[in-house]
Design goal:
75% helix, 2 domains, MetI-like fold, 304 residues, flat, 2% strand, mainly alpha
Amino acid sequence: MMQQAETITASSSKGARARNYARHYGWFIVPAAVVVLAVIIFPWIFTIYVSAHDWHLGGARSWVGFDNYIKLFSDSRFGWAMLRTLFYTVLSVIFPMILGLAAALAFNHKFPLRGLARTIFILPMMATPVAVALVWTMTFHPQLGVLNWLLAQVGLPPSMWIYSANTVIPTLVMIEVWHWTPLVMLLILGGLASLPIDPYEAAKIDGANGWQAFRHITLPLLMPFIVVALIIRCIDALKAFDTIYVITQGGPGSASETINIFLYLQAFAFYNVGYASAVVVVFFAIILALATLLLWTRQRVKMT
């Protein structure tokens, strides 16, 4: 009985301390809550509100309800922008993941000047997107660009690169791969550094070769890190804007007009704020759904 009374007293004392803590220190979260409300929640509520209006900057706004969304899904230009965004995203995720994994496996082994090689490899990631775009724009010039000069040296015909509707998206993907493969490499290399040694020693005793060790030990243990890199690359590729806009402005014609370029033009070229807000809401819903799916996949990978 005495022990039970002591337990009840201790639990009530803990509850009193918790209530006292909440009463005295709960106010410290108020500034953070105000910032979240002002920076995140209010802009989204206002964006949804604006998307329900026909509103051009400098003119009066009128309530149209879901008309902007109906117009959006019947707009062929928006549909093509979505398809280009999907195509660009898929390529900009697959190639950095494959090359980043290969580079991480290579840099995980010791070889002469490994530190210098790794430093050179991650240099593209240090450059700002606008600087990268300006350098590559000069490189892709049909007459003055160094890439066509190199092609001529080996007897190949010149390419139009970003100046042709057939090659502009693959060319932009090539820039994205060059720019962000080092990030994937660093994420996976960090995972490789944390892997235990015991499974490899056991596999070596059992006679497993290098491919079998990679397939049955390295790859499963690396999956959480690979999924994290996949999530980051998917979201980054989906919202890519600055490099594409600086290089092509959505051209030639509308051949590289992704959903972000389409949104920018609607808001800041045509001043159609209501329609652009509807694009923002739809695009946010797509990113949210994709991020939820990828996070669910990551959780499933961690559980297996």
